[in-house]
Amino acid sequence: MSSNAADRVRALSFWGGPVDPQPLGGGITNSNFLVEDGPRKYVVRLGADIPLHNVMRFNERAAALAAEAAGVSPALRYFEPGLIVIDFIEGRTFSESDVRANLPRVVDLVKRSHREVTRHIRGPALAFWTFHVLRNYLAALADRRHRLAAGLSRLAQVTERLEAVAGPTEIVYGHNDLLPANFIDDGTRLWLIDWDYGGFNTPLFDLGNLASNNEFDLAQRRELLRLYYEREPDDALRLKFQALFVASLLRESLWSMISELESQIAFDYRAYTTTNLIRFERALADFEAMIR
């Protein structure tokens, strides 16, 4: 965390008195600080617009306000371009195993978010159409001559196949980044935080993203669909879900490949790319077996 970032947080007119921002680890898109101001605690997130990643801070603000109004995310207290202040939630940040162990609660939160945040979003708001995101990443990686550029044409063909199978879909306002650390359990209820990738999308992407980011096995993926749709998933639903599950892993892989070239945050993006590409290839093989 740079001293300049901490100085910017320290200088905000929002505070009631002098504060001492403390870095929060874990962020690979933003710089995050915990700030105590009198009896209150806040999280301050700093990050510029990242158009290549579909991250625009006006959109994050709109999403955070809608999520607050929907009762699924903590209150937004202050915003200026590149900086957002939200209430700190005293609770336990989930791990992958926590997400899997609390699947009914997690699915309920995601489903309520889809229903209620969609109703509360106001003003201009972005779409996060998965396949547009993938094509945009692929073009950017080709332009920048990424070290894995030789394989991009194949990934472009995979993207087209996945989109064809996904087909027409319902649209909700999705979170689109359901990492385990974005779920917090305060001992009474769950919260869903960090809306920088929020946007209109198919609900199946959030479900595929939840499953791919939290290492769901086949039985857990079927249970996820059953809980969300309140019925046993048929073959057609399972195939569409698998397409978005694969797309989520491809998106995470391409995101990491772009971050190798663009990000200034200290993180081993190369290793993250390798891990996600391995998981993507495994999921793609399962998808291809389903459509044979």
TrEMBL record:
Protein name per its UniProtKB record:
Thiamine kinase-like enzyme
Pfam families for this protein: APH
Q: Where is the Aminoglycoside phosphotransferase domain?
A: 22-229
Record's InterPro entries? Aminoglycoside_PTrfase, Kinase-like_dom_sf
UniProt-listed Gene3D superfamilies: 3.90.1200.10, Phosphorylase Kinase, domain 1
Q: Which CDD domains match?
A: ChoK-like
Identify the domain of life.
Answer: Bacteria
